[in-house]
Amino acid sequence: MARRHVAAALADKDYGNRRLVVVAAFDVVGFSTVVEADEDNALAAWRVLRREIDPMIARGGGRIFKSLGDGLLVEFSSPVEATRTALGVQAAVAAMPPTRDIRLELRCAIHMGDVIVDGSDLLGDGINIVSRLQDHAPVGGVLVSAAVMDLISGRIEAPIDDMGVLKLKNISRPVHAYGVGAGERPSSVVAIDSFQRSRPSIAVLPFTDQSGETANSYFSDGLVEDIISALSCLPELIVISRTSVLRYRGKALDPRQIRRDLGVRYMLSGSVRRAGTKVRLSAELADCESGTTIWSDRLAGEAADLFDLQDELSAKVVATITPQVQEAELRRVLRKRPERMDAYEYVLRGLDLLYRFDDDQFVQAMPMFQRAMELDPSYATAHALAADWYSVRINQGLSPDPDADFREAERLSRLALTLDRFDPRALSLCGHVRAFSFRDFDQAIELFDRALAANPSSAIAWMRSSPTFSYIGETREARRRADIGLRLSPHDAHVFYSYSIVALAAYAAGDYPDAIAWARRSAALNPRFAPNLRFLAASLAANGQIDDARHVSRDLLGVDPKFSASRFAQAYAFRDAAKRTLFADHLILAGLPE
Fold it and tell me: Which residues fall within 8 angstroms of residue 38, CB to CB, at 6 or more apart?
């Protein structure tokens, strides 16, 4: 939403005779050659094509401000509409029959930049760039600059191809460009549509206000709106719009009826009661397919500031129902035969196996992510989780070739960012890989910032960003982020990982008793998670609990028999060399082999 507001504000603001605009450049491929061979019929074909595409451009909000014989320059106010219109034009041109045995094809490039307004014409650097960018566009496809990609990513259902940095003729600086909708599309289009259908969907019905004060119903309405807004930030969840559920206000409906009406898998309903200074919320999450209740709870708070309370209650509801939906989805997927699953469901099954280290279950996670990537090559989360799998394999001491795994983690993480530049999960996982595996802390923090800008309530973004701040020595910020992540997702199925991150922050800050407490909580839930065992052993040794430290060290060597304290610690992600040396000393003191 913020990106749309910024883009609109920039597009509407006029700085004298300068303006920031989106410009699309269309050009007929090889038109000079066609004209030379058959001028009359070539021009006739161009006129027929213009009669087809000009109205499409107008309907998309475009204004043709310059016609160059065999090309057009078109101004748009929105990069999304410009891209959608360009894709529509290319599809229409591809479907047109030949005119007098001549079939014309177009190239198109789109750029957003600063231009000079000269009457109805536009001039300047932005026009020069889009005109030169057009030369690199694929035949029948659309090429967009990075400035445009930043604003359309995740909002255009078409294949994306990172073309890299292009050197444009007579333009001094290189331009990063992306192909949109180029090449054959059938397999990826089917995969995208399948992913959209397979994602869990939810309807948040209007909450009943039981206070008897109709003037205060704004509170329950605002609460529902906050919950819908927060859930809508999750790319793996389809949320029915608020306007579509308003007609159910005041009605008690069976979940199966809601499924028939709205086609959703889950339904959230509830009531709000205000009594004195207290506001009580009852909420219930139901499975619309079975008609059963998955979760229900009652929450309460002080009504001193209703808006603060509204924010607090909506955050609690979202933090609770999100893992409940994921767990319900996983149970549903585990009942299905693997050959009948789609990309989203393979990701769920892989995620369930990712942190299991018994009976080779961890190894089985990768084929799940690979199958998801095969079914949907544009699925950023599948690529990000595959990159994370290689990182976990290295950190768990399971990698037969750490250097090769580092390279594969790098490749997959960069590909995930290319596929979706605003997916909070992909950004968070890739940020963690950048920091832990490649010590690229600045880029990692940039990726975490982008994840939180896309969804400020993303528990994984807050939690996965915490270790990076531990690595660079900003331990107070590391702990703050971990605490926020835990508050946002206290019931996560992998909460042991979150506890280990808090333990890392405490160890890095030198608070060894606190590190021990959190690491023990993590080990109680997953006793084979090697990263946590390392910091538990080191913290116990640093705190003088040598016997306990050596007991944990034996457990660690049972998981990672080839572990070397000095080699591991000196290669660890702590930026401060002295911190790495101290870490090695603590591990050796805990009885681990040097």
Answer: 102
Q: How far apart are alpha carbons 517 and 526 in whole angstroms? A: 15
Secondary structure class of 181 (helix, strand, coil): coil
Range picked from 176-185, 194-203, 419-428 for highest mean pLDDT: 419-428
How many domains, in total, are found in the chain? Answer: 3
Q: What is the dihedral of CA 169, 171, 174, 175, to 10 degrees?
A: -90
Query: Do the Cβ atoms of 183 and 161 come closer than 8 Å?
Result: yes
Residue with the larger pLDDT of the pair 401 and 221 = 401
Beta strands in 152-291 (DSSP E): 160-166, 175-180, 201-204, 208-209, 238-239, 266-275, 278-287
Range of the domain at 264: 197-334
Tell me, yes or no, whether 553 and 421 share the same domain: yes
The stretch 347-360 carries a mean pLDDT of 80
- Claim to verify: residue 269 and residue 170 sit in the same structural domain: no
pLDDT tens digits for range 427-470: 888 898 889 888 899 989 988 988 888 777 788 889 999 999 99
Residue whose entry in the numeric block shows the structure tokens 């660890």 = 572
Q: Please say whether the beta carbons of 470 and 478 come within 8 A.
A: yes
Region 542-549 average pLDDT: 96
DSSP class of 247: G
Give CA–CA dist 403/387, Å, rounded. 14
pLDDT of residue 24: 94
Residue type at 573 in one-letter notation: A
Q: Which two tokens stand for residue 489?
A: 């997702």
Can you tell me which residue has the tokens 């307004």? 117
Q: Which secondary structure element, helix H or strand E, spans residue 286, and what is its range?
A: strand 278-287
For residue 7, give the 3-state DSSP assignment.
helix
Here the CATH number for the domain that contains residue 23 is 3.30.70.1230
**Strand, helix or coil at 99?**
strand
Output the pTM of the full model.
0.58
Residues 99, 166: one domain? yes
Count CA atoms closer than 13 A to 321's CA, side-chain side: 33
In this structure, what token pair is assigned to residue 240? 């029915």
Amino acid at 129: I
CATH number of the domain that residue 449 is part of: 1.25.40.10
Q: Hey, what are 54's tokens?
A: 């000009």
Indicate the residue type of 100. R
Tokens of 4: 């749309």
